[in-house]
Amino acid sequence: MAIIGAGMTEFGELWDYSFREMGIRAGLEALNDANISSEQIDAMFVGNMSAGRFIDQEHVGALIADYAGLAHTNVPSTRVESGGASGALALRQAYFSVASGIHDIVVVGGAEKMTDIGDAEMRSIQSAAADQEWETVFGATFASLFALMTVRHMHEYGTTREELSAVAVKNHRHGALNPRAQFRREIKPEMVEKSPIVSSPLRMLDCSPVSDGAAAVVICTSEMAKQFTDQPVEILATAQASDTLALHQRKSITEMLATKVAARRAFDMAKMQPKNVDVAEVHDNFTITEIMAIEDLGFFPKGEGRKAAIEGKTAIDGEIAINSSGGLKARGDPLGATGVAQIVEIIQQLRGNADKRQVADAKVGLTHNVGGTGASVIVHILGAGP
Amino acid sequence: MAIIGAGMTEFGELWDYSFREMGIRAGLEALNDANISSEQIDAMFVGNMSAGRFIDQEHVGALIADYAGLAHTNVPSTRVESGGASGALALRQAYFSVASGIHDIVVVGGAEKMTDIGDAEMRSIQSAAADQEWETVFGATFASLFALMTVRHMHEYGTTREELSAVAVKNHRHGALNPRAQFRREIKPEMVEKSPIVSSPLRMLDCSPVSDGAAAVVICTSEMAKQFTDQPVEILATAQASDTLALHQRKSITEMLATKVAARRAFDMAKMQPKNVDVAEVHDNFTITEIMAIEDLGFFPKGEGRKAAIEGKTAIDGEIAINSSGGLKARGDPLGATGVAQIVEIIQQLRGNADKRQVADAKVGLTHNVGGTGASVIVHILGAGP
User: Fold this and answer.
1) Nearest to A78 among B58, B62, B80 (CB)
2) CA of A159: how far to CAs of A149, A199, A310, B114, in Å?
């Protein structure tokens, strides 16, 4: 299976663009990049977490197909949702539909319009990917659940404030090189450490922002891809795993078991190991999440992930480039769009088109997208085409 | 591809059951029916329209996997949404995932918990499958959009009040025979005609009710099905089509173009014609919707569908049994569950297990599930196994 086109909007507070306009812009860029016309599209999959609450609009699969001009070919269009992992989930469904032989060319989109509502409603929606009956109703916010993980990780592994800050600093440094990133400026550790507490010990600059944005890719079989591009990106593996929705039911909260399982399934499918990966976009909705992710994905031993950013190992020129796009932290995190934007970044890296963010000699990339506090994790492994 | 197990809750105002409890009950019944244990499940797909607004809970794929006891095998679980067509869409994704060769045994669930909120919020949520920017914001409700279609259908084809009423009367007659139906009592045409106006000319008894409920089926390859059951039901076709989200952009509002296109795709895939179908569950969220559906699916010529119920042609013992379950009208319409419940009814019919509702000699069944006012339509054709 190959990816033949990619596109995305800038991420940020896009007050000039509606949900549907963002979807169209990202989609058209992907179609142009793939050199295909809309008539050639057999199906569309859209990752979106919560348009029903953000913009009072469900049924956004049909909406985006319509506004992309595809209603006249009555293209099947499907919205999928898995909290913050909705984007990667859309790619996975598209993969199934092409692998099944039913569709040939499929567009995958992800979109979220978050900034049209107020702060209280925002927190309520973000927490809706956690367990409403056992967590949210008792006052747990999304940040407070990740704060619990942070404290425990500090207790078990000695993770420090400085090590957390280094993740944010690195991702802002990467984001400063990304013209589509929400935050294109570097920050210093002191800025993280003096930023307001959100849920102790997590501070504002430990958290990914609230964002609008959309991203899209076009996939088809590897055979067919040759018609459209000299630089197809191969999907070497797609894997998904679940865990308990609520944090308190897990054996450990210093790892995401679903990440470990999804990673194992993905590496098995690709017949690869973590050491084969040159560049990875991992879910860093909070600084602690990146540290856990690079441990659970097998890039660093458990308890050692905390040192990676502070020692420069995860920088663009480090041992393994983590979040060269800036990650959720600096590129932005429009929930349903994030998983697809991760794919877009890896495509640019594997094509050698990442400009100042280019990871030297990048041949294999991985994406890691998390829903809720880790109840859904989706991992994809991509390879530079022939 | 085969279906090897089916289950569903009663539909109705299930105040004793939470969303997750309904999901588990339907799922366990399907697993028991399929004679499989939860360890054998490779993946789960959940159709749900709006849990984010009904119960403040997104991420319900992971939720149901967790409460069904599947978190310990980290089963991939995916929520899909397409308004009222979310249930059929879940089956379609499951079909892809098995046909792709990646999964072997997959559970498909549909669930919606609608009755825990007030009427005003309810109307807002139901309308969220229509076009928020061009319809809902101007005061159009879901019923008023279907009322427009009704008036135009009356104008173009002479459809009468009595013909609409006959659809409701027939479906209540069928529902009275269905122990899982929300309304298990017959009604008379005068009752429909004296019921309160919802949006002229549609009256209360032209409308499907607000419902809680869940339904589930288990699918696997046809080869594998033999291990589990002597009565597999074959999925002969799956098809999906889209149309413009807003009604005013369509050439005609007396047909659903997406139904016609999805039906053509499904009959092509199954290598069948409408006359081959013995029993069909069609989307009758309003009486007019059933009339348009049986025309657009090719069971009756355009303009003749209005006569079918009043002349007894769509009764259980008629030319083609339409909505033997009672349909959305009498069985109930818990949005995300409806499409899966339609499949459950066809399975019972094809197995010859439909008791007093049994359609004689039913070999081929069809389901027709609509999202919004017809912007998404999904059609499945099922056949009795060998």
Assistant:
1) B80
2) 11, 17, 11, 45
Domain boundaries, chain A: 2-118+211-225, 140-209+235-384
Answer yes or no: pTM beyond 0.90. yes
Instruction: Give the chain B residue whose CA is nearest to the CA of A63.
Output: B245
CA–CA distance, A229 with A243 (Å, rounded to integer): 38
List the one residue out of A184, A179, A200, A203 whose CA is nearest residue A192.
Answer: A203
Whole-number Å distance between alpha carbons of B282 and B133: 28
* Tens-place pLDDT, residues B262-310: 999 999 999 999 999 999 999 999 999 999 999 999 999 999 999 999 9
Cβ count within 10 A of residue A264: 16
> What CATH architecture applies to the domain A2-118+211-225?
3-Layer(aba) Sandwich (3.40)
Q: CATH second-level architecture of B137-209+235-384? A: 3-Layer(aba) Sandwich (3.40)
Which chain A residues are closer than 8 Å to B97 by Cβ?
96, 100
Summarised one tens digit per residue, pLDDT across range B190-232 is 999 999 999 999 999 999 999 999 999 999 999 999 999 999 9
Helix (H, G, I), strand (E, B) or coil at A12: strand
Residue B335 CA to residue B97 CA, distance in Å, equals 23
Q: Is A144 on the interface with B (CB under 8 A)?
A: no
Spatial distance between the Cα atoms of A182 and A184, rounded to a whole number of angstroms: 6
Q: Which residues 337-366 in chain B show a CB within 8 A of chain A?
A: none
